[in-house]
Amino acid sequence: MGLWSTIKGWLNIGGVDVKLWKYSEPLKRSNPVITGAVLLKTKSEKTVLSLEVKVVEEVTTGSGEDKKTVTNILGKYKVPDMGKGLGYPLVLKPGENKEEPFTLNVALTQRLQDYGGVVGGLGKLAAFASGETVEFYLMATADVQGTPFDPTHKVKLSIAN
User: What's this model's pTM, rounded to 2 decimal places?
Assistant: First the structure.
């Protein structure tokens, strides 16, 4: 049991579950702020050292073997670095749920295809020709003591004007 429990702990099997919920969507370019909460729950007693929520932009260019993806962090909220939050390190008991609220200011990048009119049309044409795609994600990651593979939840965000 000792070796199996250790392996399960490393892989976070039966450990902390991270879930993004109650977040505001779509993210608006006119007011780039996202609010929400992260739900933390566990099946066995675990200690959460920190929690990080971020908005990332993934820009993919090319195709096939020439495909490249660049990830840009557009906003980040981390506890306990940016505030006390629930009080970290946080000891979660089995069956216990904790909710960490967050507010994130997001620095959205302005691309040519985001503009209207002729300039936006040219930007969309250039992005299509280069095979460029841009996707936005909201991610939450908990740093759990004794687990090299931290639990993460990632959801795709839609952007509105």
Answer: 0.80
